[in-house]
Amino acid sequence: EFRRVLFRSGTMSEAARRLFVSQPGLTKAIRELEQEMGIIIFDRTNKGIEVSKDGAIFLGYARQVLEQASL
Questions:
Q1: Among 29, 38, 40, 51, who pairs with 55 as Cys (CB 3.0-4.6 Å)?
Q2: E strands within 1-71?
């Protein structure tokens, strides 16, 4: 859900609004996850956010784990 909202939103501010969380809180959570995993999940530009190459791989694995957990 989180990944889809971020991808569709294009900006952290819009994603935070759609997820009903604060933008600083969402940004902090993503940065903490990136630090923990040792990768950049989202490339940040002045135009918004895009999923990085490493982020696409990570999010693919995360989706698989969540699908397996829901079985």
A1: 51
A2: 42-45, 48-51
- The pTM assigned to this predicted structure is 0.78
For residue 66 the two structure tokens come to 């969540």
What span, in angstroms and rounded, lies between the C-alpha atoms of 51 and 7?
8
Let me know: does 7 contact 18? Beta carbons within 8 Å: no
Residue 62 has pLDDT above 80, yes or no: yes
Own/partner pairs, 7-12, CB within 8 angstroms, 24+ separation: 7/51, 10/48, 10/49, 11/48, 11/49, 12/44, 12/49
Number of neighbours of residue 1 by Cβ within 10 angstroms: 8
